[in-house]
Each structure stands twice: as structure tokens, then as C-alpha cells.
Design a protein that fits this description.
The structure holds 2 protein chains of 2 kinds. Chain A is mainly α. Chain A has 15 helices and no strands. Chain A has one domain: Orthogonal Bundle (Ammonium transporter fold), CATH 1.10.3430. Chain B has 3 helices and 6 strands, in the order E-H-E-E-E-E-H-E-H. By secondary structure, chain B is of the alpha+beta class. Chain B has a single domain, classed as Alpha-Beta Plaits, CATH 3.30.70. In chain B, the strands form 2 sheets. Chain B has a 4-stranded antiparallel β-sheet, with helices on one face. A two-stranded antiparallel ribbon of chain B has the order 3-4. In chain B, helix 1 packs antiparallel against helix 2. Helix content of chain B is about 25%, strand content about 35%. Classes of the chains: A mainly alpha, B alpha+beta. At the A-B interface, loops of A face strand 3 of B.
Chain lengths: ~450, ~110
Amino acid sequence: MLKEKIVRWGRWAPIAALMVAMFALPVYAGDAAASAKALEKLQTNLNIVWTCVAAFLVFFMQAGFAMVEAGFTRAKNSVNIIMKNLMDFSIGSLAFFLIGFGLMFGKSNGLFGTSDFLLSGTLGDGEHWNYTFLIFQTVFAGTAATIVSGAMAGRTKFKAYLVYSTFICALIYPIFGSWAWGGLLNGGGWLENLKTPFCDFAGSTVVHSIGGWLALAGAIVLGPRIGKYDKSGNSQAIPGHNINLAALGVFILWFGWFGFNPGSTTVGNGEIGRVAVTTNLAAAAGAIAAMITSWMMFKKPDVSMALNGALAGLVSITAPSYTVTPFGSIWIGLIGGILVVLSVVFIDKVLKIDDPVGAVSVHGVCGAWGTLSCGLFNAEKVLGIGETNGGLFYGGGFSQLVSQFIGVGAGFLWAFITGLILFNLIKTTIGIRVTPEEELRGLDISEHGMEAYAGFQIFTNE
Amino acid sequence: MKLIVAMIQPHKLPDVKKELFNAEIHKMTVTNVLGCGQQRGYSETYRGVMHEVNLLKKVRLEIAVNEDFVDATIKALIKGAKTGNIGDGKIFVLDILRCLRIRTGEEGEDAIG
């Protein structure tokens, strides 16, 4: 009896199995597609998290710049330095959001963008990424803007500086940025469309050199601080009032640079570690090289030069950080550290341009070196991220180096010439420099009516 | 033996030092002081509250000299510190009763050098 029942029902088994399979298969395939999509979403969100964290680190660099500049200048101007730093980021943030972002990343005509102002038009599809991208790029623009306050410290009219802050983040920085980075969003500039694309991973030229050459223009138009050069033109020392603050600033900048360089991958994966390693090695090499160079030149290791050297290493590695080997990054930082010491002395004693914090040397000169070093040290094939090595030292020939020269030259001409025009315009309209009495008394009291060190007796003999 | 005390504007210190060195006067003591004379103060604001500051930063020099150096010192001080504006400062000449050099124990005019 039982045997008959099993045989009768058993006949259905293959058909039943087929039906079960029919229903199960689509569900299984659907799971695969759904999980792929979920993974993709997860990666996108990871990218957003990483980019945002990096953006917040770069924002913290504003504190670094403020402390470096306050430490390297005199106590009687501290309030003014802080105000300038606070304002160039604040005004820069707004100016970049309203005007600059669109110019830099909107649909481009090759020279500048013409859409995406106020982020309009980029919302909707992929809108989370666009907000993240905006905040990331804003803090980079703020970094470029704040470089200039150091070179113009101690004698600049506050109003003049506010005007400058608007123009750099609204026009000067974004237009050059669109040439090199526009393709990161909706644009596309001529530098990134060269036969061998201009390589500037995190902005040695786009951010630092632009800021550095603008600083040079400002320092030239302003003229030196009273008492900086005596009647025969010899440079006089005007020591910074707080080397501790300056050192704190440099450490904060070094910390923030781990957002600046690794963050520019804008992807949450293993490359972050590699870029962090190249960044750190260059900073360390730069600090040591600058210390040794200043030790040899001045008979004693100069801490202010060593601090500048760390920054020089960081600025230098900014462009090549993604595409060079760790060994290459040591060389790049080392040469940056030597260069910065020589450049500070050259600009101060030979060109006789007063740069209180060495901004032109650290950001302009070393930014240019770092950008050029891509043409020498790029090793994409060695690193497994490209098909050939771009750098001359790795068999890549001269084409990358040529593109780098073009970019560095374009950056210098753009920033320096627009800077001269802007600062001279300010000079002839609202005036750029304070009166000698105001300068001697200190900008804190004359421009802001308060002191940074109320209750302290600041020893001023100048 | 006279002690010459001068209050000068802080930013004139480098010029005054140069004039003194030119007149072969190298020994001095310099301190930071606050003071006022005919120069009026200025006002500062802190978070909306005004306050008058009328003790201004000055630099005080003390130079001990023998009689024959007094006039040269005063002339050098004035040459270095004068700007023609109110607030240039003042010079006081005081008598020194005794003067000793700690290292050697010399006394009197020799001690001043």
C-alpha cells in the first residue's frame, strides 16, 4: 500500500522540483543584483565619509595658518592677523559658494565654468556627492586664500584685505583651478586636456603656488615693514613673538595635510594609506633638510627654518603624493626643505621683499618645485596605477615634465599678474597700507581698538 | 658721577642706541615702562565697552656717566629720540653718591668707566 502511494506521489517529484527551481532562481539572481547595488551604495557612502573627514581636517588647517602667522609676527599685530585669517576663510567660503565653485567646476568653455553657481543644476542626480565635493573644494579655496595674509602681515589695511579675500575665492583661484581640475565635476580645463595632462594631485600649484604668487604680488605692492630694511638696504631681523604658537601651527598644518593629500583621492580605499605615507615622509625630510641647511648657513639650527622646512616638504609633495613612490617622496621633501631656506634668504636679502612668515618661499617656490617634481618622479607603472611611468627618472621621458612646466608657468603668470592688478587697484582706490603711526603703534590698537595681550607689557622698540 | 634717566618713545630706541654708540657710550640699562605726560591717551573697545588708555608704552634708559660725559650723552639722547611730536620724552640728571664695580671692587669714577 505505502509503496504504491510513494510511487504515485513520487511521479510529481521532478515537476515539483522544476517549479521550485523556477521560482527560486529569479530571487537568487535578484539577490546578486541587489547586493551589487548595495555594495556600490556602501562604497559611495564610504567615499563621502572619507572626503568629508578629509575636508574637516583641511578646515582645521585654517587654525594652523593662524597660529603660524601669529607666532612669526609681532605681538602688537596679533588681533589683526587673527581677524584676517578668520575673515579670509569666512568671506572665501561665501564667495566660493556663490561664484567660485561654478567658475571652477561648472560646464566649461575651456577657460572657466559657466554653470553650477550656488550648486544649482548639480543637485538631483548624485546630489549627496555634490554637497560633499563643494565642502571639500571650499576648504581648499580657503587654504589658498589664507596663504597671503602671512606675507602681508603687519602693514595691510584691514579693509583692503577684505576686498582681496573676496576676489581670490570668487575669481583668481577658481579660474586657474578650472584649468587644472574642472574635469573633477562638470568642467574641463585646458591644462588637464594637454596631450600629457598636467598633473597636480592635491594642489601644489592650484592651491599653494597660486596663493604664494599672490602673496608675492601683495608683498611687493605693499612694501616692507618700517624698520625691516635700514638706510643702506640691509635686512633687519623682526623676530616673531611666539615660536611656540608657530610650532603649534605647523603641527596643526601637518595634521591637516593628512586630509589635504590623502583626502584628494576622494575614495575610501587602500590608496589613502599610501598617500599618507608619501605625505609624511616628505614633511619629515623637508624639516630635516631645512634644519641642516640652516645649521650649515647660520651656524645654529634655526627652529623657524625647520618649521618652514616641514611645511615646504608638505607643499612639495602635494602635487606628486598620489603618483610617486615613498622613496621618491623623501627626495621631493628633502629638496623642498633645502629650497625653502635658500629662497627665504634670497627673497629677503637679494630681492629685498619683506615676507614675515616666508609664505612666498614655502608656498610659491616649493609649490612650483613640487609640481615640477611630478615630471621627474611620477611612477604610475611601478605603483600599479598606470600603464607607463610619467617621471623622467623612471623612464617617462620629458612630456610630463613639459606639461608641468606649462602648468607652473601658467600658474605663476595668472596669479602674479592678476595679483599685481588687484593690489594696485586696491592701492589706488581705498589704499592698501596703514599709516606709519598706525604701523608703529600696532594694528591691533589702530585697526581693531583692542589688544591681543591685554594686561601684558609688550616690549616694543619698533 | 651722574645718573642720566631718559624716557623715550619705544620705536626710537634703535636710533638712540646708535647715537649713544657713536658718542662712545656703551653702557646702559633699558626697561619697559608705562607712562604719560603731555601726550593724551587713546581709547580701546572690548566687546562693545569703551575704555580709555592713558598710560602709554615708553622705554626708560638709565646711563651712569662721569661728569665729562654728561653733555655728550644728553646730546646723543636728544639727537636719537627727537621727532618733534608731543610724547618724545624727558631726560633727568641725578647725582650718584657712590658707585662700585662688583667684579673688581673698584669705586668711584673708575667704576663708571
